[in-house]
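$ ./design --mode recover --in tokens.txt
reading tokens...
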């Protein structure tokens, strides 16, 4: 969750996808979360910048 905007939430997966919503306060079980896949490696960590909810940091693992 973005520290400066609780409506923004991102979830990273082991398949490298990042699911993002900008309206988490009204999300339900059937809510569609758009996803992006910046890398085919597995995502190990995702967070928002503390002061800029438009900036997200993402790390990956599994490189050889």
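writing sequence...
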């Amino acid at each position: 969750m973005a520290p400066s905007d609780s409506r923004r939430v991102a979830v990273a997966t082991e398949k490298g996808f990042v699911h993002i919503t900008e309206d988490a306060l009204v999300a339900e079980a059937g809510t569609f979360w758009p996803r992006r896949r910046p890398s085919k490696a597995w995502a190990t960590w995702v967070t928002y910048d503390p002061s800029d909810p438009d900036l997200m940091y993402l790390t990956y693992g599994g490189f050889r």
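exit 0
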